[in-house]
Amino acid sequence: MTEETRDWIEIRRATLADVPFIRQLALESVPYTIPEGRDVSNESVRERAEESLKNLEIMVHRRREVAIIVAVDKRESRRAGYLILEFKRVEESTGEIQSYIFDVAVEQAYMGRFVVHHLVREAARISHQMGHRYMSATISASNQRALLTAIKMGFEVERLGMIMACGPGGIEPMPGRPEEQRAHAVDRARRRSQRRRPAR
Amino acid sequence: MTQPVVSGPTQQLIDLCNAIARGERQREAELQALRQSRHEGLSAAWEAFAQSVEEQGEEFADAHRVEVEQVEAQFLAYSQCLDQIGSYFTTRKPDALTAAAGRLAATSPALLAAQGAWEAAILTTGPSRFPIVNLFDNMGKGVRDGRLPIERWIVACESHHDFYRNVVAEIDASKSAGEAGVPQRRAACVALMSLLEEMGQVTAACSKADFDAFIERMIGLQTDLEEAIATFNYNALSATPTASAEANRVIHAAFAVRDGLVAPDVLHGLADKMRQTVRVSIADAGTASRMTAESAIVAEQIPIVTASLQDIDQALALLGQVSGAGKDLDDAVGRLEDGVGRLDAANRLISQHNENFGRVICIHCQHFNPADARTCESCQRVLPRFEQFEASRGFVEGGEAAGARESVVTVTMKELEDACHGYEQGVVSRQALLELIAVNLQKVYNVQSRTRDLGLPDVPEEANEWERETSQAFIDLGEEGLALLAQGLQACKAGLQQMQQFAQSRQLSDMHEGLRQYSDGVQKLSQIERVADAFVAALPRALDEGDATDFAAPSSGD
């Protein structure tokens, strides 16, 4: 994180007024959360995400259960991203109570500006205030960007989630997503293409 | 029915929505501004509520989860109404405004009510077990700290005063006004009304000591009220539907479980407790059934008592396991009611018998007379002059005693019974028992030997018809009396011999049989009294000498 970022970024608790922004950004980010090996449609996952965000207004105020924080560009009074942090999650093997980053997203325009670093740092601080020693998160294996960012921030890979497709013969290869449904690969390809194209 | 209350700003919003839906589109900017203002107000109110929930702590919030979720749901509904109004500016469809206005009209009062319930939950929470005490204690602190307007305190005093006034009016109009606990309840309510009138006069300048004094008095009156209600409920629940107060409490608990008002544990506890009493009674009834019954009534009723107690025990066992409403519960309650009814009927008969036991039964009309009566209260005939005493449990009925269901009891019977029981318990020696039996047996032998040849003269042939008839009547009476004498003596002898058998065998059955037979004999002999007047002169002197302690010849004055 740079001093420059710290000067213009503000991290605060979300209010009712932030809910439309969070809901919209969450739905826009849905394709990036879908593992590339699955063939479930973006639309159906988006519908499911909408359903899970139905009570977002209530969750904003349930501070003992959830912390929803937003990053705001103080210079433009514009929201840059959000993070939803759940408390009192039980670690599956050790039984320890820890917090969990349910969701985090940053506006496209603010990517690469260390906004997520500020959000995660604040989330860790809040987790400690709530008595949690650890904060966990889940990242899709295909979201390499997020994975690298997380490791750079200080996350460690603790478990790897494995998946297998099943069929009449037993083990099947994962179906994979059609090209038009992919998110990360599309972005990656677009970025490569942009780098190769000379500036005009 | 009162109309739901809608807040002022919400009503403004509703009116604007309806106006624009009707076509007053020039007011759209006003609507936008008001919607924005309401949105900010909603956000602030929701934040304040969330803060309030945090302040109360996790345990309190969990205990009042229902109230919290109700407020949240209404806040969400209100927020969605505002979003729906906002959608009008995108779609330009007046229906959105009309729909939003309708929802707001319902949501606003619901939100106010939900917030009120949450505040009430906070205010009524405190160290006292009486919510009203916590309410006024918390409100008093709020008034003193300046957080609560004094008007709210006064309104609370007035509304509670009205509540207790209504309670008093209901009591005065009730048929139960005189029952246990109700006058005390009324008095407590009247005192609370008086206290609340005083409390309604306070000002914010009143000291902490003044408020504390009110709270102390309120605690005392609430305690009195609680005790009065408990007394009334206890009596009400104990009075019906059976004759047993304890069974009634079990039955009412079962009804409460059936209606979902109490947990089954309450019923289980009451049923198990009653079972302990019933089991003791079953043991006592078992002991009584092994002893010789005092009379046919007791002999008849003890098995009924035992069977009823066992049915009651089984019903209670079922009730101790039911988990809720259902056929099992209904059946068990029915069995309990039935068992208690049968037990009560049997106990009444036994009690009635015991009341009359030891009284002198008139052999002419079977009326029960006081022990010292010389003539029958009912028919004025002379009563047999037996010495009366308290009967012990060993006496039995002489089953053939002229249809009478109660026994004539004599001194000798008591002596023999006491001796037999004393021997059974090791208090009386075998020798003493055998001696007593021998003495009485000898008496019977003496009377038997002296009356064996008793007979009645034939009617002279020269007797005329009247003489013959009169004589025959006398002869019939005499023969009846002689028959009673012979049968009675034989039964007494058999009974005494059976008691001798008991002295050897120590078998209770021998003792009971011996006492029963002896008593049968006594009952038969007692029937002779009705012909005694006619036969006194004819009976040999030996009969009087033979059983002088049991029978006394009636004097000419009787």
Instruction: Summarize the biggest pleated sheet of chain B.
Output: 2 strands, antiparallel
The number of distinct helices of chain A, counting runs of at least 4 residues, comes to 7
Q: What is the N-to-C succession of helices and strands of chain B?
A: HHHHHHHHHHHHHEEHHHHHH
Shape of chain A: globular
Mean pLDDT over the residues of chain B: 82
Helix content of chain A: 25-40%
- Going by helix content, strand content and strand pairing, the class of chain B is mainly alpha
Rg over C-alpha atoms of chain A, rounded to the nearest angstrom:
18 Å
Mean pLDDT of chain A: 88
Beta-strand portion of chain A reads: 15-25%
Intertermini distance of chain A: 32 Å
Shape of chain B: rod-shaped
How helix-rich are the residues of chain B, as a percent range?
Answer: over 70%
Terminal CA distance of chain B: 87 Å
Strand order across the biggest sheet of chain A?
1-2-3-4-5
The secondary structure category of chain A is: alpha+beta
Report the uncertain regions of chain A. none
Summarize the biggest pleated sheet of chain A. 5 strands, mixed
